[in-house]
Design brief:
Blueprint (H helix, E strand, L loop, with lengths): L4 E3 L5 E3 L1 E7 L6 H8 L8 E3 L2 E8 L2 E7 L12 H10 L9 E8 L8 H11 L10 E7 L5 H10 L1 H6 L4 E5 L6 H17 L8 H29 L6 H48 L3 H39 L1
Length: 330
């Protein structure tokens, strides 16, 4: 999102600006978490509604921490003003927080959190949308003197939430809240989270929907421009039907021409045969006066004369009558 990266002496990438929002139920000791991030800093924050904004600068890093209002234990009947403030908390560090810390307190004398408490934490986080888990780290804030078995019980109770946020978690021991090691570990996990999400920050749902709408509109406009460009480079053939009609007409003309040629050929053969037969008949009748020999000669001569007459008739038809008929048709 345009955030500048710095490189620490350990070689891990760190961001010059760090924006974090803290969530947790009422009574969760979120102040210990804030102290662990803003060591030695004045914790007097700026009140904004029910949220509190803390700002600091450490080792060249500008840090903004927003404390969101808590909810009551395992109650899922949250007042509307609390829901609104939880949603508004992510708007106090624009363009959006790099990480969301869900604080789960680990008390010395208490057993692990109830299923109802974990369900309430899950429900309140998802007021920000399902996308919230991509940017969430679960922070177990332990009282001083809490033993390892108690911590493990709390981690097991939060198993469903940890699964949703990819297992990202961090344990804060109260006795070590001012430790440089504690702070470095937290910052390293936040930096790793930012690297995983390729620098993306959590965008509030209203902005996210607006971005999606603008993206869809831009995509639709791009598709429309591509279609227009395609039409400009490949315009529709407005003469297509005309060309098809002319092509059809040419095919029909060629077919009629072929049919005409066939008819002409058949007619020629018919005329030759007819005239030959007619000439043979006349020749045989004329030569019959001279006997059989005369009749035979008459037939041959008659066929010859008949063929000549037929050829003459076809010549006249082809060179005169047929041309006149074609010109009249044109």
């Amino acid at each position: 999102m345009g955030t500048k990266f710095l490189t620490s002496t350990q070689g891990s990438s760190m961001q010059s600006m760090l924006r974090v929002v803290l969530f947790g139920n009422t009574g969760a000791d979120k102040n210990n978490v804030i102290k662990s991030m803003l060591i030695g800093e004045n914790l007097t924050g700026e009140k904004n509604g029910l949220c509190t904004l803390y700002k600091s600068e450490r080792a060249g890093r500008r840090i903004s921490v927003v404390e969101a209002p808590g909810w009551h234990g395992h109650s899922q009947q949250t007042p509307e003003n609390i829901k609104e403030e939880i949603t508004r908390s992510v708007l106090l560090c624009p363009p959006g927080p790099h990480a969301l810390l869900l604080v789960i307190p680990v008390k010395t004398l208490s057993e692990e959190p109830s299923v109802g408490e974990m369900n309430a934490a899950e429900m309140h986080m998802e007021l920000l949308s399902e996308r919230v888990w991509k940017h969430t780290i679960v922070r177990f804030a332990c009282d001083e003197g809490v033993e390892e078995p108690t911590i493990r019980k709390h981690v097991q109770s939060a198993e469903k939430i940890l699964e949703k946020c990819g297992g990202r978690s961090h344990v804060l021991q109260t006795s070590a809240c001012g430790s440089q090691t504690q702070t470095s570990e937290l910052f390293q996990k936040i930096d790793s989270l930012v690297e995983e999400s390729r620098g993306d920050v959590f965008i509030p749902q209203a902005y996210y929907e607006l971005i999606q709408k603008k993206t869809q509109e831009a995509s639709g406009a791009t598709e429309l421009r591509q279609r227009r460009g395609s039409l400009q480079h490949n315009p529709p053939n407005v003469n297509k039907h005309k060309g098809d009609s002319e092509e059809k007409k040419s095919a029909e003309t060629a077919r009629h021409s072929d049919d005409g040629s066939k008819i002409t050929m058949d007619f020629t053969q018919f005329v030759l045969i007819l005239m030959g037969a007619f000439g043979a008949l006349l020749g045989s009748v004329a030569g019959a006066e001279n006997g059989v020999r005369g009749s035979f000669i008459g037939v041959v001569f008659g066929i010859f004369v008949g063929v000549l007459v037929a050829l003459f008739i076809m010549y006249v038809y082809t060179h005169f009558y047929s041309k006149q008929t074609t010109q009249s048709a044109s």
